[in-house]
Structure to design on (547 residues):
């Protein structure tokens, strides 16, 4: 027998009991070659390209699922930022029609989300970028599967506050047009957005990418939690070691599936994103890992330290396991999608201020959290600005996915259902920063960005 | 020319009982699958684990049918059954 029973049992237990899965196989597609002066032809080209590729992605993913006995939970498509391909068809109705085309292609091919209806506006907005933001409330409320993003800043460009200032109003309109404001869950605003992130809602196919690229997102907070629970009394160095070893193993599984899937699709393999991503299933929780460290509830003092340790160990273990680590790679801490995070907010252990502090060491940012529906637009923009400033100055990706739920107040619970989970509405600081935001303009980049 | 070996691990996990090896082995024989090695152990957590290393190159069923067939046997035995190509163990447990 080439492997010990213990090794086989370890792998089987990860899958059967600890929710190890390939969280997403995301196929990035360049849509620039679909552009046509006839908008009808353009839409047909987009539909055909998405549909045919998505169909193959699903079929080949299913084969590998059976071969390796590991679930491939989500199969998704990411496309070229739509504002770029719409430059010569810059009319609001056409933007909406393009979103509907992407939605129909995703639905007909059987993928749950298609990402990339967004724009890169870190230094300024083109006419097309601006129009895309204008139509987002309609797109996010009238389509089911289309996900949107804006990249409003970067380490070298600073932050485009004029773009940020448009997001508060856009989110409020989207919230008003969709049930439980769920349209807002399909929009994420970034700084330093990676062009190969496989996770929704922020996935898009970057302009520096090839015609197609396959990116894999692995998961496994349950696996990490299990190994932490088996090491209750060790010190931080040892704890980091055991997490690294575990993440190494699960990343290798992702690498195997990714490379084989890319080969069967006859396209280039992009990256493995080694982010720990929670689901609403009990035990599949990043907060659960932090609590297994010995923190009573995530949000208690010590949580930032614990998350920093976890992030660091995840990155190191993953980096040794794959030559193509990319995307966001770290740890997500969404509120509504993680049972432990929901519990912590409901128990009063975790508030928005501590959540922001946690995001300074996690891989993404303020994710999937609800705020009262009467939160002023400027306050939404200020929440976004604060979070994104952390990313711009510290040269890391940060992002915000906030849901202002009409008619709800702090302490209420909002059920989105499915993967999006349940969000406790969080208290928002009531003091205003309107006069500061009204200044507009651009946050200059950090002095440490001047490296040339 | 001899066919290339196609190695798969079948793992049965649960409470120890009579007839586990016999039931699985009989099923594999009917699918023309050759058992190369068998190992079983009671784990420190009390779980019984039986692992079979098999060659499916001459199998009369594909991986999906094999998984479904063994899943059904697992239900009859009230045990979990995993069917996995050996490459996943090679990737996860060997550098």
């Amino acid at each position: 027998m080439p492997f010990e029973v213990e090794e086989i049992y370890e792998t089987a237990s990860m899958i059967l009991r600890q929710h190890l899965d390939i969280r997403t196989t995301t196929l990035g597609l360049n849509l620039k070659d679909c552009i046509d002066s006839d908008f009808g032809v353009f839409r047909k080209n987009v539909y055909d390209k998405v549909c045919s590729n998505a169909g193959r992605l699903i079929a080949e993913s299913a084969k590998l699922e059976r071969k390796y006995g590991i679930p491939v939970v989500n199969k998704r498509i990411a496309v070229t930022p739509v504002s770029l391909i719409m430059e010569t068809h810059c009319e609001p109705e056409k933007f909406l029609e393009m979103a509907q085309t992407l939605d129909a292609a995703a639905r007909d091919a059987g993928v749950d989300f298609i990402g990339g209806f967004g724009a890169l506006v870190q230094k300024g907005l083109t006419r097309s970028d601006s129009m895309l933001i204008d139509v987002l409330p309609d797109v996010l409320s009238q389509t089911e599967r289309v996900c949107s993003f804006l990249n409003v800043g970067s380490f070298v460009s600073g932050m485009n506050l004029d773009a940020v200032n448009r997001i508060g109003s856009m989110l409020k309109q989207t919230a008003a047009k969709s049930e439980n404001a769920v349209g807002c869950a399909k929009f994420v605003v970034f700084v330093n957005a990676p062009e190969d992130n496989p996770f929704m809602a922020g996935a898009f196919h970057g302009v520096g990418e090839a015609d197609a690229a396959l990116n894999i997102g692995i998961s496994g907070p349950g696996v990490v939690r299990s190994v932490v629970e088996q090491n209750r009394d060790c010190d931080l160095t040892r704890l980091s070691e055991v997490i690294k070893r575990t993440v190494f193993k699960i990343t290798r599984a992702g690498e195997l599936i990714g490379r084989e899937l890319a080969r069967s699709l006859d396209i280039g393999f992009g990256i493995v994103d080694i982010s720990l991503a929670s689901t609403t299933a009990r035990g599949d929780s990043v907060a659960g890992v932090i609590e297994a460290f010995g923190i009573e509830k995530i949000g208690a003092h010590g949580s930032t330290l614990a998350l920093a340790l976890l992030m660091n160990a995840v990155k190191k273990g993953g980096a040794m396991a794959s030559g193509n680590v990319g995307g966001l790679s770290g740890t997500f801490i969404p509120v509504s999608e993680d049972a432990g995070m929901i519990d912590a907010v409901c128990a009063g252990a975790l508030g928005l201020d501590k959540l922001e502090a946690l995001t300074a060491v996690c891989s993404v940012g303020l994710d999937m959290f609800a705020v009262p529906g009467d939160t002023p637009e400027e306050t939404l923009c200020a929440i976004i600005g604060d979070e994104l400033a952390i990313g711009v100055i510290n040269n890391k990706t940060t992002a915000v996915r906030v849901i202002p739920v009409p008619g709800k107040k702090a302490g209420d619970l909002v059920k989105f259902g499915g993967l999006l989970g349940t969000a406790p509405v969080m208290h928002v600081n009531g003091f205003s920063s309107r006069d500061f935001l009204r200044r507009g303009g651009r946050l200059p980049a950090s002095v440490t960005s001047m490296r040339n | 020319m001899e066919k290339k070996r196609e190695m798969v691990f079948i793992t049965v996990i649960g409470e120890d009982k009579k007839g586990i090896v016999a039931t699985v082995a009989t099923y594999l024989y009917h699918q023309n699958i050759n058992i190369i090695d068998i190992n079983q152990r009671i784990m420190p957590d009390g779980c019984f684990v039986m692992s079979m290393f098999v060659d499916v190159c001459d199998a009369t069923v594909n991986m999906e049918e094999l998984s479904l067939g063994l899943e059904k046997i697992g239900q009859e035995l009230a045990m979990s059954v995993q069917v996995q190509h050996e490459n996943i163990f090679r990737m996860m447990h060997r550098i």
About this structure: The interface with chain A takes residues 9, 11, 13, 37, 39-41, 43, 47, 49, 51, 53, 63-64, 67, 80, 82-93 of chain B (CB under 8 Å). Chain B has a mean pLDDT of 93. Chain B has one domain: 7-93.
